[in-house]
Amino acid sequence: MSFKVIEKKDLDFFNKILGGNFVVTDPEMLKENSHDETEDLSFFPEVILLPHKTAEIQKVLSYCNENNICVTPRGAGTGLSGGAIPFKGGVSLDMKRMNRIINIDEENFQVITQPGVITEELQNAVEEKGLFYPVDPASRGSCFIGGNVAENSGGPRAVKYGTVKDYVLGLEIVLSDGKIIRTGTRTLKDATGYDITHLIVGSEGTLAVITEITLKLIPFPKKRLLMSIPFTSEENATKAVNVILKMGVIPSALEFMEREALKRSSEFLKESSVYIEVPERIEAHLLVEVDGNDTDDLYNEAEVITEAISSLTEEDIAVAELKQEQDKLWKLRRVIGEAVKMGSIYKEVDTVVPRSILPALLLMVKKIGEKYGFKTICYGHAGDGNLHVNILKEGLTDLEWSAEVPKGIKEIFQFVVEMGGTISAEHGIGLVQKKYIPIVFSTETINLMKSIKNIFDPKGILNPGKIWPD
Ligand code: 2HG
Ligand code: ZN
Fold first, then answer.
1. Ligand with an atom nearest the CA of residue 264
2. Ligand 2 centroid – CA 261 distance (Å)
3. Residue 166 has pLDDT above 80, yes or no
4. Are residue 280 and residue 321 in the same domain, yes or no?
5. Is the pLDDT of residue 361 over 90?
């Protein structure tokens, strides 16, 4: 599918709608919007548009649809599957100016926000009112809530609180022809018509542009304890996950970090005195957080967890009650993605399986890595069965990287699907995983999804080249 190359008359139209400062063709800025946090991928837009209200997006999309100009919606560019990369050039529709929290409804525990609000800023704003928006991707300090909705993001607290889709009550969206649609409600229950809201959540900017989001909130948990549990074997660490959950304790977070992941993030943070020694015998850690409103209850839960896993580790378990201690441990966990990626070209697979399969998944990942000669660094949201597998180019030749590694990724994905899992838990498909989609879906299912795309965006101008194999 080819699109019209943008020319002066198009730029004149965009200037009329948005004003000159918000129609950007500066090469440095185009370069900035050509990539996100995905591996070494970069495709330049022809222009960046920065709208600050729905009516502007309505006019831009209607014009682009009429003139066959493609449009890639972009949040903060923290994505890990190429979702915001303008694969076919055209317009990068940058949502950073749509950054207002419209209303925090303390009576009904809801917030209405524009998409360009930083997730952590939204969390802090509602926390001031004693409310909690729990979905906290590792990139929460920079990612936008709109991008989180577009990717159905997760994060460490999904094991207890779920992912973005569990909090979106309603949306305002703009379709590729400029129609403005409101979906969903402001009620906690809704059995009215098809659930368009949740069709848009996770659609990666391919069905519509999200211009307003209504989210459900919950009361903020007053107390937290964070346990750092060392293991001398990765297998025992992954086995401990289900042992803990079968004790009836639902941790608010249950993270797995293998030795190399923790070592790299600790190195990465050395200056900021967040440094922990990982003794040679330690092969992996679990971070287990429990939250609630009574500290004694939390210590009882920590006791239950400690008792339950006593046959899997004899190492001392650190229990952080003080927030600054907890923040240090969370910082070590949250920067792993950045730390692991900074030294090398990488491919990252966001595998997820029923959580009892996690031990077998980790073993299989390591076996496939040996078979195809690549190193993996693994960590992730063990409580959800979600294992992030970072494959580093490091010493591999270009041929090994381009030929052998994709074979290994395919085998990992085949195993995951055979085990009842899927190929993305939270990072999305975007550009980088689309060739593996046929491992997950039948041709009929793919065609059904493509026909839905065709209904929403018949000319295919929205985020072209994503999710579906070319
Ligand atoms: C995390 O869990 C994020 O740390 C990022 O999903 C993962 O960058 C990564 O590999
Ligand atoms: Zn993650």
1. 1
2. 13
3. yes
4. yes
5. yes
